[in-house]
Protein: histidine kinase
Amino acid sequence: MIKKGITRQIVLHYFIVVFLALLLVEFVFMLAVQRYYYESIYNTISTHISNSKDFFEPLARESNTEDGKNLSKLLVNLALDNTELEILDLNSHVLASSTAFESDRAVLQTSDIQQALNGGMGRWVGRQPGTGEQVMAVSHKFDLGGENTYVIRYLTSLENVNSKLLFMGMLAIVVGVGVLAIVLIISIGMANSIVRPINNITAVSAQMARGRLDVRVKGNYKHELGELASTLNFMAHEIVRSNQIKDDFISSISHELRTPLTSIKGWSETLDSGGYDPDETRIGMGIISKETERLIGLVEEMLDFSKLQQNQMKLVKGTVSIREIVQETMLNVWAKAEQKQIHLKLESDENRAFNVFGDGNRLKQVFLNLVDNAIKFSHENSWIFLTVKEEEGQILASVQDTGIGISEEHLIKVRDRFFQVNHQNGGTGLGLAITQELVELHDGTITMQSELGTGTTVTVSLPALPEYETVEDPILQNDETEVTLDPKLTQAESDQKKF
Structure:
């Protein structure tokens, strides 16, 4: 007995479908064979009747013999092997039979006789009264001239034919049982070929659920099962990698938090002890302030990432000039760039603002992160080029450095959360992940091109606003967007460019 499950369902479905198909085919086959045999018998008798009628009726009219002699001639000349010949009058009484001469017999009332009296070739299949034997009767009217008109009726047994049909039916049943047995074996094998891999995958996934992420689905499975196994293995690999990244992040952030806290604690205790001149006190307070800002930056970065992950980041959008944001970013990082003697250069059309619809503070955060990374990984006395331009309705802002670059292996992972190319450089590994999320919230994209030892180019693409349009934050305006159009435009042009 097949236990409940997919195996039973597959086997039952295949078995039922094939069984019903075989039942239909065998029924149609037996019906066709029976019809063929019965039609063959009928055609043989009807052909014999037609030929005999064409030959015998003219001769009988010319001879004009007595009724008794006509019956004898009919019995002799119309006889057919393996059939009983009966001659009936127009009142359906049997006048003579090839088995014996009979009269005053009961009236026959089968349908073939009535059809013959109506001028057609009558046929009837049924059981012979008295014997119960199944027979076929074929009747036709013979006109021998004058009052000598008779119904010629041939009667043949169907027992031999039915025996052959029964044998063929039993043979068909045996073949059907054999086919069903083969289908059962094949369907069980097919079901097992599907269920066995599923059981294997289920067992492996159960081990993964219990924390054993080192196990993998083994086996060269094909089609959807192969894809499922590959996906499960990839999932386990990604979980292991994510756990490793998480562990590295915890280690890194612990170090990042411990270093400023140690400095703050040390200088706090030192200052608390007193006895230091004002210069040392000022230096200590500066270090405490700097390390506090660093801690605040780390905490804010993690809070921003948490908000982005939970879709709780709120943007205050309006018309923002990307060129102005990039200029402000350069001013903010100028002191840090000077420490490494790095030169910043902006390449942009001074007569254009390059407006976008977005949150100015968040977009500034994006470019601060990108330029800060460029400074961090650039060599001393190098250049960083910032470019702002418009192409095909998109504002493209690029940050290009000539620093250490990123390898192809790390380039595809560098925007993953918690990922750091070099853990010794500090940070949480969330900067680029947050940057990408913020750009996507502005319906933009961020692309990176880098070559190890040559430098990196990061390009932010944002939908551009036409120079003559300014848009206020729709949230603050109750979903009403304010649009200012260039007064030089005609009324028709203004109507076309409103949105």
About this structure: The chain has three domains: 6-164, 243-309, 318-467.
